[in-house]
Amino acid sequence: MAVPVAFFAVFFAYPVAAIVKRGLETDGTWQLGRITDVLTQPDIRHVLWFTTWQALVSTALTLLVALPGAYVFARFDFPGKQVLRAVVTVPFVLPTVVVGTAFLALVGRGGLLDEWWGVRLDTTVWAILLAHVFFNYAVVVRTVGGLWAQLDPRQEEAARMLGASRLRAWRTVTLPALGPAVAAAALMVFLFTFTSFGVVQILGGPTFSTLEVEIYRQTSEIFDLSTAAVLTLIQFAAVGAVLALHAWTVRRRETALRLVDASVTARRPRGAGEWGLLAGVVGSVAVLLFLPLAVLVQRSLDAPDFGYYRALTRGDGGVFLVAPIEAVGNSLEYALAATGIAVVVGGLAATALTRRDAGRFVRGFDALLMLPLGVSAVTVGFGFLISLDEPPLDLRQSWILVPLAQALVGVPFVVRTMLPVLRAVDHRLREAAAVLGASPWRAWREVDLPMVRRALLIAAGFAFAVSLGEFGATVFIARPDNPTLPVAVARLLGRAGDLNYGQAMALSTILMVVCAVALLVLERLRTDRTGEF
Amino acid sequence: MLLSLQDATVRFGGRAVLDGVGLDVAEHEIVCVLGPSGSGKSTLLRAVAGLQPLDSGRVLLDGRDQGAVPAHKRGVGLMFQDHQLFPQRDVGANVAFGLRMHGVGKGRQDERVRELLDLVGLPGAGRRAVAALSGGEQQRVALARALAPRPRLLMLDEPLGQLDRSLRERLVVELRELFGRLGTTVLAVTHDQGEAFALADRVVVMRDGRIAQSGTPLEVWQRPADEFVARFLGFENVVRGTVTGEAADTAWGKVPVPPGAAQGARSVLVRPAGVRLVAADEGLRCTVAARTFKGTHVAVQLHPTEGDGPRLEAACALREAPEVGDAVGVEFDAAETVVLG
């Protein structure tokens, strides 16, 4: 418990406090009147309203599209399942900037739909909503599907024997068991879309702006730090309220579930209905997730002899000090370090949170852990820059700064993924181990760990993916000679010219491939391990 | 004493689940705690195991206070009500778990696992998955797992609770033989009196977190301490009355009681065997409300038609049992009557 608390105090609370202080304090006095000043501006109110409703609609749409996907992945066995699972996860790890650009290439001016049917969506809110679904599909499939695969199907069968129809059995038995996982997924999607940055920046144009975009604009374009600080506080409060609500619902619904080995619950689809459902899911994945990626790849190849790719290996000193291709190695190193930190910190926190004697303080920490997701990544990066640059914590020159910032964003994923499964472990199993002579730590290793190993791997995968794609914070602290992939992509996109645009597409494609490979390895690892049980 | 509970008290939100319980268990003794659900039996075991801290009082093992000793260092075994086998391990690994925790070498572990699986009648089952076991087999594995580290005290929480009747009756005999042979000290809890009487050297009846009675099965059966214990043991013929000399004045009329019985206002128990049916115009007049075939006898439910006494149960030989609706007379046998506290 002490480790996660210290981690968050030093690397989250302290930087955020520093930026708020800088924003709201002038010559040693607090200027709290600025909060009301900012809140009464009509355009800020407009931003607040848009941020909220687009997040709600995006969340609802994502659940609607992705829940059938979660079901298919959890319950059906079909050829190519692992590849499809990786394909589904790839969008999530793409930098938001690239997601935005991919959708621009699909639905924007001169995009695929424009070329074919003359349809353009980039001036409408639909482009943002679709990009959000694209981006968060994996969150729902992974979070909900992970638990769904371990629910005992016989519980539903028992309900059907008691006279419940298939739908009714699902609604009364499976849905309540899935409740916490669905809530966790919905919460994540809401938070991501509430704080959406890259996507809205690119697809929103001047019409649509979220809080995060506004914070970025105030910080880096208008240099109005106090307005940015106030907006950060508002975002903080809103996110805190949502998280408190979530913690409350989870505690009310927390139940010990009957978990079984995931490998025994999946089977071949039977009958036209189930094959139809599978086809529908594959179809929606193809249109919503695969198509934008395909367009991305196609654009990256839009020069003779892989011209954009070959340009990546040249360090011509234009945009970078080094060849852009070196960003691949940097990104992988940073992401591995960040994953290690996130898994250790998140695993410890999740374990502390499941202890039955956990007090109010510990349970409050549950919600606190999610805050890094809600506070603007831009704020975190900027906070790191201004707070960790002097003794005793002068980390500005240290390579560890980037993994630390990325781990901060990864920890909530680890906690969210592990908590539902850890909570579902029957505590009497731990007691049985204790009575047989296992110390609490040993009992955790012998009882909890084997059961949550799968969740732990999924969590590690998530943390890795998030670290690879993290952009908002990294852009502030990555050193010019050591850019990460998303930072390199953003710099290339910021430059005019077809060559830079093509190189950005090429680098994004590489990022996509790296992620897909990493995830496939992870999936392989998982299947090998399940045989152990 | 191997185990001593002194004034053990546990409160859940103000309600005392264990209320000043004192209990001693001697080495090699088999003690069965008997009580309805919610009487605090399981909490008692959890307190001894160290899984439930006491609000006051002490748990002593071999005379040493266990207050500061965590569960995994107490050296007691606990077999959980629903077994709690580790689902991700096979049978052998479940049994070996406690041995591993105590740092027993691999070779010795295998040997002991084989020995225990033989002992509980599952030879060669080491590689089987626990999910594939039947209820009775799971129970045996749980027993083997609890016995493996040779705990100084073995505790069983409703050990046979979920098994079917014939299996239960067979296993309870096996268990008693096994514990006798191994010299195991056992503290078991159950709500089934048949199980308790068959297993235990001593029975402790609990009610609302307190001990209502403690004694050998025979003592408890013959002389229930109070109306609660009598009714919990399945005796229905209990009535309030005033005892004067060798008779009690009750709603069933005069009931003879054994010499030396406590005097004054008391509850009086008449065992079914002590309810004798006589001609309809003698004794207490009743009609037959129901009859249940019990194998060796017929239990006859009688509804008194005079006085306002409660229903009576009589045990009759099959041939002598009256039909439902018959009018009969009832007399009572002093030898089968107990004046309760």
Automatic annotation (TrEMBL), chain A:
Gene3D superfamilies linked: MetI-like
GO biological process terms held by the UniProt record: transmembrane transport
GO cellular component: plasma membrane
Name of the protein in question: Iron ABC transporter permease
CDD domains noted in UniProt: TM_PBP2
Pfam families for the chain: BPD_transp_1
Localization per Swiss-Prot or TrEMBL: Cell inner membrane; Cell membrane
PROSITE patterns according to UniProt: ABC_TM1 (PS50928)
Protein family according to the UniProt entry: Belongs to the binding-protein-dependent transport system permease family.
Main location: membrane
TM region positions: 53-74, 86-106, 126-151, 172-205, 225-248, 275-297, 334-353, 365-386, 398-419, 455-478, 501-522
This protein's record includes keyword Membrane: yes
Membrane topology: Multi-pass membrane protein
Domain ABC transmembrane type-1: start-end pairs: 48-244, 328-522
Keywords for this protein: Cell inner membrane, Cell membrane, Membrane, Transmembrane, Transmembrane helix, Transport
UniProtKB/TrEMBL annotation, chain B:
InterPro entries (UniProt xref): AAA+_ATPase, ABC_SmlMolc_Importer, ABC_transporter-like_ATP-bd, ABC_transporter-like_CS, Mo/tungstate-bd_C_term_dom, P-loop_NTPase, Transp-assoc_OB_typ2
EC number in record: 7.6.2.9
A Pfam family annotated for this UniProt entry: TOBE_2
Residue span, ABC transporter domain: 3-233
GO cellular component, one term: ATP-binding cassette (ABC) transporter complex
A GO molecular-function annotation: ATP hydrolysis activity
UniProt keyword annotations, A-Z: ATP-binding, Nucleotide-binding, Transport
Protein's name in the database: ABC-type quaternary amine transporter
Lineage: Bacteria, Bacillati, Actinomycetota, Actinomycetes, Kitasatosporales
